[in-house]
Amino acid sequence: MTSLPEEQSKTRLGLVIDLDICVGCHACAVNCKEWNSSGYHAPMTDKDPYGHDPLGVWFNRIHTFEETSEAGQRTVHFPKSCLHCEDAPCVTVCPTGASYKRSEDGIVLVDESKCIGCKLCSWACPYGAREFDDDAGVMKKCTLCVDRIYNENLDSETRLPACVSTCPASARHFGDFADPNSNVSKLVKERGGYDLMPEMKCSPTNKYLPPRPRRDEQAAVGSSPRRLEEAKPEGGFLGWIDDLLSE
Amino acid sequence: MHPAASIILFTTASGLGYGLLFVLGIAAACGLLPPNTLFGVLTIALALGTVSIGLLSSTFHLGHPERAWRAVTQWRSSWLSREGVLAILVYGPAFYFGAGWILFDQELYAWRAISFTLAVGAIATVFCTAMIYASLKSIPRWNNQWVSAVYLSLSLMTGALWFVAIWAFFFPVPTALTTILLVLIIVAYACKYCYWRYIENAPVVSTAESATGLGSKGKTRLLEPPHTGRNYLLEEMGYKVARKHANKLRVICMFSAFGVPIACYVFIYFADGYYVTVLAVTAAVLGQVGVTIERWLFFAEAEHVVMLYYGKDQIHG
To answer: How close is the nearest chain A Cα to the Cα of B221, in Å?
Structure first.
């Protein structure tokens, strides 16, 4: 049923992405591809993967932006995957019931056996979270690794989305936003986590943490270069050398 | 947005067909349809033919056409599903109407009531088509009230143009009918003109800053894209039409869809005999060509906010 759940779920699973410490290594995207190539939405089709014009399905992509403000310029690496919105427009536009939001944990999924491949959900998503698989003829998207996070065959500490478990900088956090004491809720509160494109009124579950303000403007790359210290602060031997070499 | 041929064919052909069914339904409900079997067969064949070709072509771009029947299940939330449900339901009154006109006594009140239902169903289907696009917040150029006005008025216009084009082969065209056609064409032009005015002057809806949350007091620009090759999003949403071509195509569209048909119908006031038929057919054919260009532009000129993640600065309504 592509109507959204009538009540907000008691658990709202999602990600917090810390733009302050993401180093843009693309490991999350690679591990996402690796896991999901054999997971719920497998395969993540690649066309011409080793040729000149490859085209493939990815659930997670890392953009890099340059932010210019009064404090100067800075490079911000910006991973983007499905935000598992509360008011997910990709769900309500679906004519077949293939696209749905789970009432138990808020994860947005596609039932591939019902998808007719009309692509309307990908048009409705402002964030570009859905990618069409030309080969399978169905829409694919991030599952929040639903086949990992509840997987009892895995150790409890590895029951995390693939992108979160692989991030070498711990820039990605997974948790329950409905619980005010969860790690993700605390991070959002402490660091001012925000929504992407709030004007689209999708109420995304995933939140982004802004880059922290710079601690020392002088230390920033691009500020005025350090000078050599004065060679003759108070005369003496060094002063004599300085005089000698200055002639 | 990528202007897919199958969707352009679907929206223009089914627009014609439902517009024609609306005209036929209203005329029948008012008791104005002449009891001429061949005229009936031709108009109904054109209407149901274009509607059916349109519906079939809309399934061509599906990844799984064999599952298309599932698309009628989610009418509670999805405009696409509502369109599918109505499109199928309208065949019922359409066949009853056609059979009544061609085969049976058309003066029954039940037949007139069914014809009126057909008219309502036909125009409601076009409204659902328009709302598929108009309900998408992510494509601000479609997310406005002019979209449904344009779809409805162009559907009525093309349906009526073809109605008169066939009519002219059988009967003289009354002055009142010519006037109605002129009004329909001018209303359609006014709606399209307002749409173009709207998208020229619409405010900025989203920016690279709102999309990333960065640069609240400054600017944000894409430094490196996430990949060096193509991807689905860029192919589907990243279609770009050069401004100068868009402007030229708008001029061609205006002449073909509205200018020539208006001129034709002004001449029809003064013409008679075969000239009327030639003018009416010319107006219908060029009107249809113009509407096809209009629909291509409707897709090609629309911008999706996801392009803010791929180097666009801002997206206007």
So the answer is: 5
pTM: 0.91
Q: What percent of chain B has pLDDT over 70?
A: 99
| Contact: A65, B236; criterion CB under 8 Å | no
- Measured between beta carbons, the chain A residues lying within 8 angstroms of B79 are 93
Could you read off the pLDDT of B247-266 as tens digits, one per residue?
A: 899 999 999 999 999 999 99
Which structural domain range is residue B92 located in?
1-135
Structural domain boundaries, residue A191: 13-219
Provide the β-strand partners of residue A74.
A67
Given this model, what pLDDT does residue A233 score? 59
Is A243 within the bounds of a domain? no
User: What are B210's two structure tokens?
Assistant: 């709102």
Counting the structural domains of chain A, the total is: 1
Closest residue on chain A to B68 (Cα): A116
Q: Which of A127, A132, A139 sits opposite B306 (nearest CB)?
A: A127
Average pLDDT over residues A170-187: 97
CA dist., res. A212 & res. A214, Å (int): 6
ipTM of the complex, rounded to two decimals:
0.93
Beta carbon pairs, A and B, within 8 Å: 197
Q: Which of A44-53, A187-196, B275-284 has the lowest mean pLDDT?
A: A44-53
Q: Which pairing describes strands A108-110 and A72-81: parallel, antiparallel, or unpaired? A: unpaired
CB contact under 8 A, B81 and A19: no
Q: How far is CA A17 from CA A42, A80, B129, in A?
A: 25, 9, 38
Six token digits for residue A25: 């290594």
